[in-house]
Write a structure and sequence with these properties.
- The complex is a heterodimer of chains A (653) and B (163).
- Chain A is built from 24 helices and 27 strands.
- In chain A, the strands form nine sheets. In chain A, strands 2, 3, 4, 7, 8, 14, 22 and 23 form an eight-stranded mixed β-sheet that branches. In chain A, strands 16-15-27-26-25 form a five-stranded antiparallel β-sheet, sandwiched between helices.
- The relative contact order of chain A is 0.10.
- Chain A has 653 residues and is α+β, with helices and mostly antiparallel strands.
- Chain A has three domains: 3-43; 80-196, no CATH class; 290-332 and 367-652, Beta-lactamase, CATH 3.40.710.10.
- The longest helix of chain A is centred in the first third of the chain and has 30 residues, at 3-32.
- By secondary structure, chain B is an all-alpha fold.
- Chain B has five helices and no strands.
- Chain B has helices spanning 6-13, 23-86, 89-98, 141-144, 147-161.
- The longest helix of chain B has 64 residues, at 23-86.
- Chain B is rod-shaped, with a radius of gyration of 39 Å.
- Classes of the chains: A alpha+beta (653), B mainly alpha (163).
């Protein structure tokens, strides 16, 4: 080879060696002298199984007060579970004299450090049972590698069921200090060897800052692992959020966040996919006004206690929009204490015909025979169909026989000659039965009942039960059914449905869908307002105006205890017998609205089974005074001045 | 020097060479070509290694940031709940009573006309959209495509642009 060529080859060789050297240098730097970022990469668990959650949507009242939020609770796991679970057996087998740390010691230490109450013996027993059942008794079978810790185990033998152990924030902080993850108050680090293998995992759980307030409306979301989930080594993990009742139930699909366990690689594209799956939830703004709700609940509780009633409910709604300002029932449920729910539901759902009945909401899920408050709808139908006028007269004789059934009034008193306003003022059953059977007839009456959607659900955005309305052609319908329906017996509606229907009388005959959600806050922060929805116009505006005046007059004539000084009020009392119509138990009620010339608020009060002492079984004695207590508070909160002030202000403008 | 025309070049190509390259020249050339291929492969592989390492490092940072984000989100939720419980109706009522306040009777209230005033609108601290990565536009296709995807998409584009 000539020298020139040799030089060229050498130069080419050097040139080729440069990138090779560069690669070697880079590999050396990468492996031996890593940057801090790459050092983390070496120690990062790979792949990382991570529990990801997006929090459940928040629930606010109409003024932005939080009614339902989220807090973090921690679930605990014990890694390397086998060595703790069978510590005594392992010690005996190895025969080294010193006992290994048992799971009972770990749980005892955990309870002492965090203050969590752990029933150690059943918990250990349940975990050992679980491990045995997983392995099938075979040494080489599948065993628990990680134990999910529980606070207790209930049942016996093979049917031991674990009660989940959850730590709150403060307990978790104590655990972190004991494990040496964070310093204590003095800045010192500790390391408790018994707690070395304990690992915690954060989960969102629902928290209701107002406790019992508006519990009927808000409902409850089970997020703490007390609903079925997926099995993982024999231990249930819970990925479902289920709203039990209220808006938590009705709007569950948009409120619920994402909760899943994902395998995270460190490849960015895969992480992004995980993020994409974790869709955030929407939040809700309710029509409920917290102040009005609190006032309503206070008045309801007072009324229930005063009348020794078993339960009751109050609804406050805006007739023009159908917005529910307050919805309360009694007894209320403490939303932060699920253990009390069953007793509350039983108290609200127990009926003579169904002693074991359970109802989460009296206002939307417990139809009842409304009694005389229903007469408002009967009179609305009769006036609108032109079959009667306010001046139409009826001579009451105390009883009226229809279809073989003798109809009585609420009192033995005979009212004699009455016009229609008098019939309402004295709540004369025979008069309304006469109007329905003699003046209107079944076809007209039930046509108007259909216009008011009686016998169907009204469409509120809450779990709702329809009432019952028997019609001509039904096997159990007779002429007497029409007569009793006219004064609100033999027909059932929910308080909310009845309130919405009667609100049409206060709203120029226009029936609005009652609703409890005012707006939805989308995940991107935009607010979607919910517009009021009009169902129809069952009666004309003229009829509504006439009936409005009749009901104002009837309260004045009666000298009702519902009258509010300074405000003109329209309303109607009700006293209904409870099926099977034996004994003296009644449902006392009152529906009223005001100011009568510009109705802003309608209130329906229902008190179940009040004492008969002092005539408290009647709506006029028990429910009407509650209206007089509540209405002025609501007017004050909403800034509705007395009629005289309002007229004075209007005149000055 | 004259440039052969095409028929002359064809005739020349069919001729047998009068000499052969020395074997060491052929071997050297082959060795150089082989080394070049090996080094190209090594360079490509090292590029993959470094890019992969950078991607993994970025992925780890993303993980860390997401964990941090989740922790912050938990703190925000917890503090919102705590704040709400300290402003709850029952807490405020009890506090007001402690301070000697009493609920006013509606009958005792006076109403005065005031000129129109700006109505305060409630502030809702809803979920912050920036906490979440919107699916789709978060990453450019360059970070999602494989080389084959990129090639196919470009060929497709070229095909669609051609007349």
């Amino acid at each position: 080879m000539n020298p020139t060529l040799a030089n060229r080859v050498r130069i080419a060789g050097y040139l080729l060696l440069i990138p090779l050297a560069a690669i070697l240098v880079q590999l050396t730097r990468f492996q031996i002298l890593p940057t801090p970022g790459r050092s983390e990469l070496f120690s990062a668990p790979y792949p990382l199984v991570r529990h990801i959650e997006t929090p459940r949507g928040l629930i606010y009242d109409r003024n932005g007060n939080l009614l339902a939020g989220n807090v973090t609770h921690y679930r605990l796991y014990l890694d390397n579970c086998q060595q703790y679970l069978w510590a005594q057996d392992l010690s005996a087998a190895e025969n080294h004299g010193s006992a290994s740390v048992s799971i009972a010691s770990v749980l005892g230490e955990l309870g002492q450090v965090t203050g969590a109450r752990i029933n150690i013996s059943p918990v250990v027993q349940s975990l050992q049972e679980l491990d045995r059942s997983l392995s099938g008794g075979a040494a080489n079978g599948e065993h628990l590698s990680t134990c999910t810790l529980s606070s207790d185990a209930v049942g016996s033998g093979d049917s031991l069921a674990a009660v989940p152990l959850w730590l709150d924030e403060s307990q978790e902080a104590k655990l972190e200090i004991a494990q040496g993850q964070t310093a204590d108050a003095k800045g010192e680090f500790h390391s408790d060897p018994l707690l070395f293998d304990i690992r915690s995992e954060a989960w969102y759980t629902r928290y209701y800052p107002e406790g019992t307030l508006a519990s009927e409306v808000i409902g409850y979301s089970r997020q703490s692992g007390d609903q079925p989930g997926n099995a993982d080594q024999g231990v249930l993990r819970y990925y479902l959020e289920t709203g039990d009742w209220g808006v938590e139930n009705y709007y569950n699909s948009i409120l619920q966040g994402t909760r899943e366990d994902v395998t995270w690689t460190v490849v960015p594209i895969d992480i992004t996919n995980n993020i994409d799956n974790a869709q955030p939830s929407a939040s809700l703004i309710l029509t409920i006004d917290r102040q009005i709700q609190a006032a309503t609940e206070a008045v309801l509780q007072e009324g229930i206690q005063r009348s020794h009633a078993s339960r009751g409910s109050i609804l406050v709604l805006q007739p023009q929009t159908g917005e529910i300002l307050a919805m309360a029932d009694y007894p209320p449920a403490d939303l932060n204490d699920p253990s009390g729910f069953q007793a509350v539901f039983q108290a609200k759902g127990r009926l003579p015909e169904d002693p074991e009945g359970q109802v989460p909401s009296l206002n939307t899920e417990a139809p009842y025979e409304p009694g005389s408050t229903f007469k408002v709808l009967t009179m609305a139908a009769a006036l609108d169909s032109g079959k009667v006028e306010p001046g139409t007269t009826f001579v009451d004789q105390g009883t009226l026989e229809v279809g073989g059934l003798v109809i009585h009034n609420w009192t033995p008193q005979v009212f004699g000659l009455q016009d229609m306003t008098g019939c309402l003022a004295n709540s004369i059953n025979t008069c309304l039965a006469w109007v329905a059977t003699q003046k209107m007839g079944a076809a007209d009456f039930y046509d108007y009942m259909d216009r008011f959607w009686i016998g169907r659900t009204i469409g509120v955005d809450l779990p709702e039960a329809p009432g019952v309305l028997r019609r001509p052609g039904d096997t159990d319908w007779t002429d007497a059914t029409l007569a009793t329906n006219a004064f609100g017996q033999g027909v059932s509606v929910t308080p909310l449905h009845l309130a919405a229907d009667i609100a049409a009388v206060a709203n120029h005959g226009v029936l609005m869908v009652p609703h409890v959600v005012k707006a939805i806050i989308r995940p991107d922060g935009s607010v979607q307002e919910i517009s009021p929805v009009r169902i129809g116009q069952p009666i004309s505006a003229a009829t509504a105006g006439t009936l409005n005046q009749m009901l104002v007059q009837s309260l004045l004539t009666e000298g009702s205890k519902a009258l509010v000084p300074g405000y003109k009020i329209a309303g109607k009392t009700g006293t209904a017998d409870i099926p099977p119509y034996v004994g003296t138990k009644t449902i006392a009620s009152f529906v009223g609205w005001g100011p009568a010339d510009d109705p802003q608020v309608l209130i329906l009060i229902r008190i179940d089974e009040p004492t008969s002492a002092g005539d408290m079984q009647y709506g006029s004695i028990t429910a009407a005074p509650l209206f007089a207590e509540l209405a002025p508070r609501v007017f004050a909160i909403l800034g509705i001045p007395p009629d005289a002030v309002r007229q004075q202000l209007a005149a000055s403008q | 020097m004259t440039v052969p025309n095409s028929s002359a070049a064809e005739a020349q190509g069919s001729r047998t060479r009068a000499y052969r390259q020395a074997p060491w020249r052929v071997q050297t050339r082959l060795l150089a070509m082989g080394l070049a291929v090996v080094l190209t492969l090594a360079a490509t592989l090292s590029l993959f290694v470094f890019t992969g390492a950078q991607a993994a490092q970025a992925g780890l940072q993303v993980q860390t940031l997401l964990i941090e984000r989740d922790d912050l989100l938990r703190q925000i939720n917890g503090q919102q709940a705590e704040l709400a419980s300290r402003q709850s109706e029952s807490w405020l009522s009890a506090r007001a009573k402690e301070l000697g306040f009493e609920p006013v009777s509606p009958q005792a209230m006076g109403f005065i006309e005031i000129p129109p005033a700006p109505v305060s609108t409630p502030v809702y601290i809803g979920p912050a959209g920036t906490l979440y990565v919107e699916p789709g536009p978060a990453l450019s296709p360059a970070y999602r495509q494989t080389l084959l995807d990129w090639l196919v998409s470009h060929l497709g584009q070229a095909g669609s642009n051609s007349p």
